[in-house]
Automatic annotation (TrEMBL):
Domain of life: Eukaryota
Record protein name field: Uncharacterized protein
Organism listed in the record: Schizaphis graminum
């Protein structure tokens, strides 16, 4: 079982730092720096997102999927830049730094490289189960983006890589090898049980 890191994600970058890193990323990809985020070509790798299990398995009993994603998701730098830039655009409260539920799907569309179809939006909502009117923090937003990439990213690229071609991080593999034990205290019908099983199998 991997030890939990004190902080799963870097602190939120200030606007100019985000812009500079995003422009550098666009140049690396050969994309015009004036192109908006939905025009960026996206590739999704399992190594960019690492999901872990908490040290205390009983803590899962009181977690929602967003609780889990907030505390147990690690994001690599290039993805974090994109997530942060989109968060800044859709941030609904400059003081509390949050994003409203009614902006999630349009914002996630920018992260994923194109807007969601109605069915894709329904499918992701059923996997995560956010509430109507829910307000998400930055960490919850990043966890949600990571889950979207892992769980439905294959629908957004022409040739998704198999798990053999693109394996998960070794730490994640070690954690999720113990998943059955960690799920003993959860109902198979709970959203978190289903989410963790999907993460392991996707």
């Amino acid at each position: 079982m991997a030890l939990q890191e004190a902080f799963k994600m870097k602190p939120l970058l200030i606007n100019q730092e985000i812009n500079d890193e995003l422009d550098a990323l666009k140049r690396k990809l050969g994309v015009n720096t004036e192109v908006m985020l939905p025009g960026l070509p996206r590739t999704f790798s399992r190594k960019n997102i690492r999901f872990e299990l908490p040290l205390d398995r009983k803590s899962l009993k009181d977690m929602t999927p967003l609780d889990y994603l907030r505390s147990n998701t690690s994001i690599t730098g290039s993805c974090l830049v994109i997530y942060s830039r989109v968060f800044e655009k859709y941030n609904t409260n400059s003081e509390t730094r949050t994003i409203h539920e009614n902006k999630l799907i349009p914002a996630l569309g920018e992260v994923m490289g194109r807007q969601f179809s109605n069915q894709e939006a329904i499918d992701l909502h059923q996997m995560i189960g956010w509430s109507d009117g829910q307000i998400l923090t930055y960490r919850e937003w990043c966890g949600l983006c990571g889950a979207a990439e892992r769980l439905i990213g294959h629908r957004f690229v022409p040739q998704p890589l198999s798990k053999v071609q693109d394996p998960c991080n070794e730490v994640e593999n070690a954690d999720f090898a113990l998943l059955d034990r960690w799920l003993q205290d959860l109902s198979p019908n709970s959203l978190l049980y289903k989410l963790l099983t999907l993460i392991k199998n996707t």
